[in-house]
Fold these 4 entries.
Entry 1:
Amino acid sequence: MDALARSLASTGLPHPLLVDVAREAIAAADPDSATERAATLARTLLQPVVNATGVLLHTNLGRAPVATARPATYANVELDLATGERGSRFAGVGHLAARACGAEAAIVVNNNAAAVLLVLAALAAGRGVAVSRGESVEIGGGFRVPEVMEQSGARLVDIGTTNRTRLADYTAAVARSDIALALKVHPSNYRITGFTETVPTDALATLPVPVVVDIGSGLLDAACPWLRSGPPAWLRDEPAARQTLAAGASLVTFSGDKLLGGPQAGIIAGSSDLVARCARHPLARALRPGALVLDALQDVLLAYLRRDGDAIPFWRMASTSVDILRDRARSIGVGDIVDSAAVPGAGSVPGVEIASVAIALAGNHRDTLRAHTPPIIARVEDGRTLCDLRTVDPGEDAVLAAALRTCGS
Ligand SMILES: *Cc1c(COP(=O)(O)O)cnc(C)c1O
């Protein structure tokens, strides 16, 4: 067994894992299968993949692509370099986030689910939180407003009806019971159409309680000053942090890895008093991100503040012109060049398509492409394999071309 394990050393896997593989192969009375078993195990490790799906924020592929090159050094995570005193992990990157969306203050936690949980626990535990019945939603991966509310210790107070909720419904609830805040939740990948009515943030802001808006996807500013050509048409009416705060929200919460284009994180931004109460709550300690995340998020926020959308991979990919994608498809020189429709993904701006270009091969080659090193993730439509170039970094074109040539259609 040990000899078999050692014969697999070239896989680069640590010896104890190779011993497991060798043991399984011998137990299956098939020692020759050890090589394939080792390869299968190696492919369970996290590794770079080429996203040729056309889904810009693909939850299975880690949502937004982020750079994480970082030397093995210490960093001033909780040290104030000006005074030499202990500083706040929340201060530096939080300040950049606040500055980028026009908030007084902001803090960063592990994800947006954590942001909503912390806001409710810190500001409303033991009290009521008013939520429209039309916004008491479930958002991908088990984020359910009533369940997050329950975990926070706050009490959900249902307002209005599933399709229509008016300001008067909130006013009546605030007069009737102990309401700590009104929570407005962007339904993200869910739409109610027809005979509907919702209360916009500026109307909610007239209530005598703070308004918290979970905008979800982290569009910082509807004017997109980081894009030379301004906001793309496909953004439609996706809520943005800056405008939601300007409309009177006391706090907004959003993800770091959706339209913000950063690492998995959650941001709580708004009134400095309320943000400070969140930061002081004991849960903040359990939900705080590590230096790797803060580092990657800082890079993204600095790019926003420089108005350099090209430095943010999500925005660079989302705003590449179709002509450029078509030129790249021609240079790749394999398969047919076809029109395609990319999508933002991760529940952001549901239902919109971004014109794109794909390379099409007849037949289903998804498994072959996924078995390539690095794995290429493609989609299959109408009996054809499509590799959408909008989500492929130009630096990966050569790898994609090589993989496509192995498909031989
Ligand atoms: C995506 C989303 C969440 C959950 O955010 P995560 O960062 O995935 O935890 C919560 N609320 C809304 C409105 C969302 O769109």
Note: Residues 111-113, 139, 143, 185-186, 188, 214, 216-217, 255, 266, 347 surround pyridoxal-5'-phosphate (CB under 6 Å).
Entry 2:
Amino acid sequence: MQKKLRVSFHKPSLFKEEEKAVVRTLRSGWITTGPSTAAFEKAFAEYTGAGYALGVNSCTAALHLALVAAGIKKGDEVITSPITFPATANVVIHQNATPVFSDVLPDSLNIDPAKIEEKITPRTKAIIPVHFAGNPCEMDEIMKIARRHNLTVIEDAAHAIGTVYKNKKVGAISDMTCFSFYATKNITTGEGGMLTTGNKNLADKIAVLRLHGISRDAWNRYGPGGYHHWESFYAGYKYNMFDIQAAIGLVQMKRISAFWRRRKQIVNIYNEAFSGMPGLQPLKYCEGGNSKSAYHLYVILLKLEKLKASRDAIMNEIQNNGVGIGIHFRALHLQKYYRERYGFRKGILPEAEKASDSVLSLPLYPGLADSDVKTVIRAVKKVFERFTI
Ligand SMILES: *Cc1c(COP(=O)(O)O)cnc(C)c1O
């Protein structure tokens, strides 16, 4: 049994202003998709520099809609990273297409551009890079490969609100980018997501697809200017964002840079505290220059050859010392469903598989006090000292 934690793995940073925004929305008489959603979309499009931002009820929904809008269908293949949350590849399967996993870089755990091309076949239609832990993928190289083979690029930016790649915010780089406002992400609406694109045709199509495939959302149907008939254009989805979410999101957006500064500070404190420890290597964070990490997760890679315990044993010990931890991620291709359906075996993606057994995420969120950070460091050092050979 796990003891009560002194520092939990995550706690969302929500304040009075978010509370007020929710109450205001509840009292306004308009709680579903409406003016707050539109305002949140506008703010998000401006923030990222994307032409269009479409609010949805999760990043998973955004990823699914992106695949539908890109025309991904039965028989197609979509290349993605095995170091991700199942949602990234599940949505490919929802389209009756096949997820193809390509190995990651050992220091950032982002998809390795040099290995993508060997996975491309005549059936390949899209690439979904995942900006793991908030560090930008090598987008120039990925976009070059995509253009060469006429593939759509859909970024999984669930970790990447605020990530910058070569002076461009993630959201304004590829064909479509999918963000998450899930409870643990850099900003949150409880549940929620946003899809950005610079392509008006895709934006128009997704706007219709996300709400039943009908031509007018409820707000426009009953808004000023009289009644407009709606028309069913596609067998669409129920993926719309609603105004209670959006009202929280609008407040959270104003906090992005303050949250980012605190996250970066904590990453620096951890990096310094753990430097020189033989049993672990912190993930490589993108720093300086014209790119910027969103510092979504603080991940350490265990050097198992220097340790006399497994990652899981060390994880449990840290938890027993009162510190919550996470695992991001056990390689997706080796999870039960994927193994059984596609026959994946250990050995096909060596870097991802190594990471799968050696990653450990420590608490990283703006609500951590300096004393919490010290508690985490003390617990980690104590456990590693005990288990280092
Ligand atoms: C959280 C997460 C998702 C899913 O986000 P939801 O908003 O919960 O649907 C997708 N991809 C990655 C990498 C994630 O971490």
Note: The pocket of pyridoxal-5'-phosphate is lined by residues 58-60, 84-85, 87-88, 130, 156, 158-159, 180, 182, 193 (CB under 6 Å).
Entry 3:
Amino acid sequence: MNLTLHVDAERWRAHLAATIDALPGIVPVVKGNGYGFGRDLATAEAARLGLGTLAVGTYAEAEDALISWAGDVLVLSAWRPWETLDDPRLIHTVGRVEDLRAISRSARVLIEGATSLARHGLGEPELADAIDAADGLTVEGLSIHLPLAGHGDNARQAARWAAQLGQSQLPAKTLWVSHLNAAELADLSAAHDDLAIRPRVGTALWLGDLDALRPAATVLDVHRVRRGERVGYRQRQITRSGHMLVVGAGTSHGVGLDAPKANRSMVERGKTVARGTLEAAGWARSPFIVDGRQRWFVEPPHMHHSLVLLPDGVTPPGVGDEVTARVRFTTTAFDAVSFE
Ligand SMILES: *Cc1c(COP(=O)(O)O)cnc(C)c1O
């Protein structure tokens, strides 16, 4: 296999089980590339854990989930009038009064409240209108989506919506939330024993114990290269003699397509600036680690391969060996997931 996600199965599943125990009412989120595992595999794991509701990102993903998952399927994307998927197991997220009026009366819905994330959802003053507009629908509760960088404010925002839900005419006293930690969820539950709380969790579930996961790419070829020699699609000159690895992972796997990083600290920002200068000079650090360091790409990767330079003094791996790759799980398409 070219790019494999090695999973320490026992450790990973122990983390999944511990997360489920710590977060009562958890709704596993399986969207996009299934957090690196693939949506089929993650869905099967969620089923093994005996959970009843699965959250997916889009209506296209929901179509698959209605086949692969036996329980309810919550769609996180806001429902809009052009969406036609309809199923008794489907739960829609609806955040505009007009959409609550427009959706089929057989639909099960969550009413979405806005938060500081400012993506979708209605404001607190609109809730009464929304409840009117939801007449005839099966409302399964109120949903809020909170930012990742909550700056300590997520619990307060959740508490406000919990209070709104508690006082409202909605019969379904369930608050569906994201991005609250176990302590914040426990506090919220304790303060609102009239409400059921359902945390939607993806990253902290699937990727919460990164030590259980090791992405690695296969070395397909190793060449001796000399300074000045031209190689690759771009016929770039090698800057230092050494070895060039042909690694079996490239842009088709998401390698070399880094999404912008949310750099928080000055040190991280400094590193980005330094990297930017080198990138301006046409250099980029690959995700592949040899001898403890991420090595430079010889040229931008293309489809299924990357060319990586190991300067003299670094012992090259052999053909067929694997090199560990530091990749972003949610943007990487692994060829295989290997449970070990
Ligand atoms: C993606 C998503 C989640 C899960 O987010 P993670 O950070 O992966 O846990 C929860 N709620 C909504 C609405 C989402 O879109």
Note: The mean pLDDT is 94.
Entry 4:
Amino acid sequence: MKRINQSEPLIEKEEKRAVMEYLNSGGWLTEYRRTQEFERMIANQVGSKYASAVTNGTLSLAVALLVIGLERDAEVIVPDYTMISSANSIILAGAKPVLVDISRDDLCLDLDKTEAAITSKTKAIMYVSINGRCSKMEDLLTLVRRHNLLLIEDASQSFGSKYKGKSLGTFGVLGCFSFSPPKIVTTGQGGAVVTDDEELYHKILLMKDYGRPKSGVDYYETVGYNFKFTDLQAVIGIEQMKKIGWRIHRKKEMFKIYHDLLQGTPQIEFVETDLNDCTPWFIDILVEKGREKLISFLNTVGIDSRPFYPAIHTQPPYASAKGDFENSEYISKRGLWLPSSLSLPDEDMRFVCQKIKEFFKN
Ligand SMILES: *Cc1c(COP(=O)(O)O)cnc(C)c1O
């Protein structure tokens, strides 16, 4: 039986050819000119002045937090529903994550609860635009200004997504992206930090290269680490960036196909999605009842699906977190990701939807 993966990377002939050409060119694999080219493409795509590629998305968040300079007991607000990386990166940067509930309409931070969680130690908000959605950017920016906080965007799931025409990742002082295999552009591992702030950009360059201002010269201005990217990955990223228009278009088209085919299935709900701005990275649905049964039924007919992330406060490292997490609990128990690969043909999407309908009929 043929299996349909929930997610798999799309690597085409252009990427393969570029890797071979690069290897034949005698490149040193590590970060150099190809990475710079990839970074320029990222900055152009999102409309930021600077982009710096780093090892992965988790580290892009950690680097962002490290360069803004957090005191030991600084608190950073982060949603209780997101990939665990968002919260863990705050700990990696030496600060304290404060989990806050999400709102049901866009699955992003609930701004009233966010405001209530602000203390004298709160330094930043890490806003995660889940699946390319964000419906309250203006209110968020007002709140951030009112409390004199820094906004760091975890836009890992939002490459290609916008708010009123402006790219997500460019509203915060720093915006972070991931290029892991399920993401819309993937280099295996990879991430990027974007900013318009020259000073922060220079701090990132030092931070990712052991603290030295010049590669190959052993003078270290600050304590830095090694969060660098590689040219070997950059050549793959560059080829995908050349096709980013199609990749974005296809994700939107896929969402629309699923959305239209699953109309009239009352057991399933879609999160409101404006495809002008939003490029859904995964096809996400909410299943009111019987999600686990649906997952196993789909599995028996060769379809992989994946439940949403658990609410972070339910995981062992965050068990002591306190608060009202009503919506993140509600969403993580009902959310389901359907097959979402860019390589998925329309007929497979029709098959998935047909099987979902079949399940709910019985
Ligand atoms: C993918 C993702 C990350 C982590 O990125 P990695 O590249 O896997 O480290 C962080 N936050 C969110 C919201 C993500 O979806």
Note: DSSP finds twelve helices and 13 strands in the chain.
